Amino acid sequence: MQPHRGTMILVFGILGLLVCMPLGIVAWVMGSADLKAMDAGTMDPEGRSSTQAGKILGIIATLLAVLSFVLGMLLLAGAIILPAVAN
User: Cys staple from 10: which of 5, 15, 50, 76, with CB 3.0 to 4.6 Å?
Assistant: First the structure.
């Protein structure tokens, strides 16, 4: 039986929210894989709650990263288009 990586996934999820948004994707993917392994019985289920929390934080961090990217592109497009329209 493999040891759980719940604490590491939780830390990645928190760092994904606060500092480095790509870590949110890592937390999401690792959390999903570890939860499947726990359900299959090949991984220690003791860290299930921290794995779930890290996965949820990873999902939130990823969604915030996508949202901020889209808003940034809209603002950039507006900054480029508005001066051209005003003239």
Answer: 50
Contact criterion met (CB below 8 Å) for 52 and 29:
no
- Hey, CA dihedral for 27, 29, 34, 35, is it positive or negative? positive
Residues 6+ apart with CB under 8 A from 5: 30, 34, 47, 51
Ramachandran angles phi, psi of 42, nearest 5°: -95, -5
- This prediction has a pTM of 0.86
Q: Which residues of the chain have pLDDT under 50?
A: none
* Count of domains observed in the chain: 1
> Quick check: 50 and 27 in contact, CB under 8 A?
no
Which residues share a beta bridge with 2? 43
Kindly state whether residue 45 falls inside one of the protein's structural domains.
Answer: yes
